[in-house]
Amino acid sequence: MTKRKFSGPLRGMRILEIGHFIAAPFCTRLLADLGADVVKVEPLSGDPVRKWGDSVDGKSLWWSVHARNKRSVAVNLKAPGAAGVILRLVRDCDALVENFRPGQLARMGLSNETLRRENPALVIGHVSGYGQDGPYRDRAAFGVIGEAIGGLRHLSDHPPGTSDLPPVRVGVSIGDSLAGLYAALGIVSALWQRDRAAGDGRGRTVDVALTESVLSLMEGMLPEYGETGKVRQPSGSRIPTAAPSSAYPTRDGKWVLIAGNSEPLFQRLCALMGGTDLAGDPRFCDNPSRVANVAALDDMIGAWTCQFEAATLLDLLEKADVPATRIYDAADCAADPQFRHREMVREVEDPLFGKALTHPGIVPKVTDDPGEIRWCGAAIGEHTDEVLAGSGFTLPEIAALREKEIIA
Q1: Do 194 and 89 have their domain in common?
Q2: Is the full-model pTM beyond 0.90?
């Protein structure tokens, strides 16, 4: 059996993932990047994300990142006897993470109580649309639903009256990823409590809702409404409480974001622009005044930025020490020297593709033991025999499970 070496601050931790699509697998990818041994249970036909996004020869490029550092075990969870396989696997696990609808795991014979009869110390992380209880508990939900009901979709739109198009999506499955982030934090927190803070060795349950994960990021939206009755409105590219801070056009058709919203920064921007008396204009004398007159201010800044190509404009702003950047696309991110220097963009060999693919790096960066990308998303069931043998299954038992089409 393969003896695998792990590095990173979470080495020695074992996580069983019974997840699909994005939220739970994103949680476990973060933990795996930091050194946890993640065993991913997926259907015999594979996780649906294997067919998402752009592909090469029928293989998903996203999968390479989505399932990296995880060992794949293919199990038909609906087959008689499948629950018994999972129950033997959890004996050696610190935590289990899943994102079925509430109650679905129990209907498969894998309730919290059943799991903890096998492993009383097991931390169980549930990720769902609305949480494990409440009036919406059984409703279907994906990340986009969480983004809408959590207030993000409303605030990420263009300002009122400027567009008749539907509210704008962020562009990635941010609701799922946020839930995954909170689930990862919850798992680590529960393990700390189990092993150190309380030190009682007792398993905990982590309950993460997509909707709540989004709502938790809404800054002052709720207290503002509660005390003033004010409903925060979308502001497009601008920050509603500070100015100037927006994206401005350049002569070569690019957009440059400029954040000159403190007094020293605004003064430096005014000096750089020259030929205009912005600093002495009473409409722009302080931040509240600039916010009140932001449309006129942005028009003046935009008229100035349009004189320059993006590279020239950015050089001027950098020399003046005014925070600014071009709006990046994928090609810009991939080529950026800062991302490359910190290995946030790196090339990783992927045997499924027979070549290196460009991956995002590991976040957070734990400097003394940062973890590593040990391998990319595996083939379906690539590690089934290895994992089962490591959990005490004999070769005849594994063969029998395969013959009954419980595993692949």
Answers
A1: yes
A2: yes
In a domain, 5, yes or no: no
Q: Do β-strands 37-42 and 14-18 pair in parallel, antiparallel, or remain unpaired?
A: parallel
Structural domain span for residue 315: 245-332
Only one residue has tokens 């973060």, namely 30
Residue 286 and residue 193 share a domain: no
Under 8 Å between Cβ of 320 and 271: yes
CATH number at residue 294: 3.30.1540.10
Measure the CA–CA gap between 276 and 244, rounded to whole angstroms.
15
Q: Are 47 and 123 found together in one domain?
A: yes
**Assigned domain for 394 exists:** yes
From 94, 176, 298, 385, active-site residue = 176
pLDDT per position in the chain (408 positions), as tens?
456 788 999 999 999 999 889 999 999 999 999 999 999 999 999 999 999 999 999 999 999 999 999 999 999 999 999 999 999 999 999 999 999 999 999 999 999 999 999 999 999 999 999 999 999 999 999 999 999 999 999 999 999 999 999 999 999 999 999 999 999 999 999 999 999 999 999 999 999 999 999 999 999 999 999 999 999 999 999 999 999 999 999 999 999 999 999 999 999 999 999 976 788 899 999 999 999 999 999 999 999 999 999 999 999 999 999 999 999 999 999 999 999 999 999 999 999 999 999 999 999 999 999 999 999 999 999 999 999 999 999 999 999 999 999 999
Transcribe 301-348 into DSSP letters.
HHHHHTTS-HHHHHHHHHHTT--EEE---HHHHHH-HHHHHTTSEEEE
Does residue 132 share a domain with residue 107?
yes
Q: Are residues 269 and 370 located together in one domain of the fold?
A: no
Residue 166 near residue 184, CB atoms below 8 Å: no
Q: Is 176 a catalytic residue?
A: yes
Q: Are residues 305 and 361 in the same domain?
A: no
| Total number of domains in the chain | 2
